[in-house]
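ok trying this again, last paste got cut off
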Amino acid sequence: MYVLIGFVVLILVVLARSVKVVPQKQVKIIERLGKFHLQAQPGLNLILPFVDSVRASHDLRERITRIEPQPVITRDNVTMEVDAVIYYLLVDPVRATYEVQNLEMGIEQLTLSALRNTIGSLDLDHTLTSRDEINNQLRAALDAATQQWGVKVVRVELKNIDPPEEIKLTMEKQMTAERSRRAVVTTAEGEKASAILRAEGLKQAAIVNAEGEKQSAILHSEGQAQARLAVAQAEAQALQVIAKG
């Protein structure tokens, strides 16, 4: 009786160790006697108990790694702090298992190196105004470096670029001066436009006055001509009457 129970328990243990259920969007790396054997896909998978073992499990959804604020130096020797977020996919779980000991730490270290190299090649102004360009350069550099680990870097986003306080004060003064300059320019342009409108109004008024005087002179001349014509006609009629008499 005890033998039968033991046999049943053994069968159940063997079955339990033989069946591996892999969730959706995950894979499991299976080793046989310590060597890579297969990549178990989502669903029900059968393995040999006591011979096969799960070496690693990987999530295939998009991953996010956050880089805490780090000091970097620009080409013109300004030290600032930047932080970033890396979005990546695991496209080759086998490489991710065997080519790197700690994938996330490796990506963090590569990102720090890429940040220092990229920003170190730019001056302060370029760094502050070219965030998209820096993001693209970082993505390309990280994608190339992590390809051997089975990783595809989707995008990199710099979150904050924090220059020293004295630089911030200088930038604020420049912005204030720029706003003042723009206000002066706007006022001058407004006064210029107003002067142009006034001049245009005076011009139009002068044209209207001239047209009025012209029309008045024409009407006056026409009136005089008609009056002379009427006088001439009257004199002619008078002469005709005298001649008939």
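PB: full thing came through this time. The longest strand covers residues 79-90.
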